[in-house]
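Please check these two lines:
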Amino acid sequence: MAQWRRTLALIALLVVAATPTAWATRDEPPPGRINGAPAGPGDIYLALGDSLATGDEEPSNSADEGYLPGYPAYLDAILDRTQPILLTVDLAVSGETSSSMRASGGQLEQAVAFIAAQHAQGRRVSPVTLSIGGNDMVGTFLGQSTLTITDTLPLFRANLEVILDTLLSALTENGQRTGDLIVMNYYNPYPGLTIRSLPPQIVLAPGQEPIVTDVEVPRFNQIIAEEAAERGIPIVDAYGAFLGRIDQLTFVRLPYNFLDLANIARNFDYHPREAGHQVLARGFAEASGYPLVLPRAWVPMVK
């Protein structure tokens, strides 16, 4: 089954490559939901975003856990319980930022072309899940970006506005919404941490002020909350779901050990474990508003 779905995703990419980009233009973006009701599952579930959607993590941690998939595979399993004919396509890109997603020929453009191609063939794409912004955020935390938090926040908001409006337009035909878009906010991967001057692997960008993660993650999430609410898009509260469980649901080792330089990437790997991906999948399922049967054995959204 997993290999078959990977093959489907590869076919989808080939279709996208051969399909002209279909950019919808509107003075006002269509609402995420009409009268608050979801459009419901369609023929294809489309996963978009970053490494949370691809399931990638630090290689040594992948080897330990058995190279398991990201949350879309677990959401697929939930959808299959009531929608067994629903196919899954994952166009997510590891390391994707809100800026790279918008780049010419990038993931957003591919997603719009894919949705248009499916509509042209009489197939409906719904739901569409999105996890984007984590690399914008963590890039500033770990000195991987030359931008400061002050620079990153307005850039992320501007990018997110375009991403959401573009996807909603792609999911609208003749003024009618044809598919559901669901987004997630982000958990705080490093609770209680103030980033000043850490080992060489984790450094501040030039001129960057110390970062208090407990302050900055909510600022990112506030942008997601505001932009999603303006468009009636449901949100998965990953921040609340992971709160107090970061070492259970991700690969981050607590208490922090900055002296173990040989394993610093492994110990500070902010990607979810299998339990974390299950929590995200359950969150997307609950946010969808679909009548679904949730697996009892999986880790719940709340403690």
